[in-house]
User: What shape does this take?
Amino acid sequence: MILSIRNLTLDFLMQDTTVRAVNSLNLDLQRGETMGLVGESGSGKSVTALMAMGLLHHTAAQRISGEILYFPDEDSEPIDLLKIPRQDRWKYRGAHLSMIFQEPMTSLNPVMRCGKQVAETIVQHQGLTQSEARQETLRLFSRVQLGDVQRIYDSYPHQISGGQKQRVMIAMAVSCHPAVLIADEPTTALDSQTQEGILQLLAELQQERQCSLLFISHDLAVISKICNRVAVLRNGIKVEEGDTRQVFQQPKHPYTRGLVACRPSNSQKLYRLPTIEDFLAEQQPAPRLVLPEETAARKQQLSAQPPLLEVQNLTVHYPVEKDFFGRTIKWLDAVQQANFTLFPGETLGIAGESGSGKSTLGRAIVRMAPIHSGTITYRMNDQRLSLTQLTAAQFMPVQREIQLVFQDPYSSLSPGKSIGEAIKEPMKVHNLHENDKKRQEKTIELLELIGLDGNFFKRYPHELSGGQRQRVCIARALSVQPRLLICDEIVSALDVSVQAVILNLLLDLQEKLGLSYLFISHDQNVLFQLCDRILQMGKVARE
Assistant: This one.
């Protein structure tokens, strides 16, 4: 055994209540083992890891009890990580226990070059010189399969892709040869190809360095690929533990059965995805399958209409290298020669790996990315408008009809604005409804439409869960009565249970409001369940 969690309890102390995030948790991690920790947001997975790392401790706002015992050697006495003085905790972080955080963009320092951040860790824990640390960092970058390691070393986090940032985080985590590596959702929001590469890399590094791996995820498919054992958490309580294959193939607890059933399939299309609540209430409705003849009839009905949106030969490229005189000598084609048609009431999926141009394509349609060439034609009031030729003033009415829902709901909402104000704001911009009272009434209607209630009007983004924030972003987009929603990876970072609820919500809204969707995702299972057609994108760079 290398890590033992015993009777661990964490309470967050609010002004008028106490929230128990972890409740008498017991877990053992063996030497050389890969153990999975599964559960929804708020189940206590990440805070357990943060406590082990010494990043959560006793304060006036939180209360911790129990033990987290670390065994440096098989014969040595255990060290209780919760009792290490704060000034000495840095000695264990990195050198003994290391963590790959969920969000590399927010975990990396935005004003510090990627290579410097890794080299700094090596200098701190291994005592190497700056020059030696630089060479070791370049070697690590090569080991984690980062191409053009010199460029990555000198790049800032915003200049590299999500998959590359995650690999930089892995290089930093393993740079000091930790005995325990904690991976907190390291593949969330990555495309399947990049995800496979990250999982293979972690497995290779674990074997190479003989470390123990605690892998935290809400994605059961990922856990089943990499973990020997798995523990399932719900509301801070361990509800099931055992061999990974046995737990997922023959789950005993209703919550585990619900997690397994909520995962979308790429072989059977359902009218509605089952949810966790169905299983917890012991109400497991028989899934209603969408028959092939129903799919064919729907496609024929949709394609019989005039197109709502037509994109022809759309190209978006950015300069990536200039010569001495400032002339661009190398371009990155984010989108190259894209062509597709979207019909009213249709859901068109946009698939592709990280960096293939999916998000750029969506942003280009709403003029948030520069268009190099090609045409975008939109049908509005029985008129075909060329969006690339409209002035900013002419584009305003179109902007109301085409709304973009972003991937990260937390950064999409202003932390200083209440939920109600965030939803009302677009109505004010587009002069909808005669006064503020009517806008407030409409906002409450929208909150109820997306499955929330009027009590959320005065709440703030930090008081909501990830799924609730995503619903608010959808409500904000709906506030201006659009015809087309561009959904950019809006369920990629959500738990499978919350994901099922959001996908069902989108289907309900489409039926009620006649919406059309451009649904951007790297998850083929989600695309299969939601979309009528799928456009596959690739990435091209040219000089």
Notes: The CA atoms of residues 324 and 513 lie 55 Å apart. The chain has a mean pLDDT of 87. Residues 307-542 form a domain with the Rossmann fold fold (CATH 3.40.50.300).
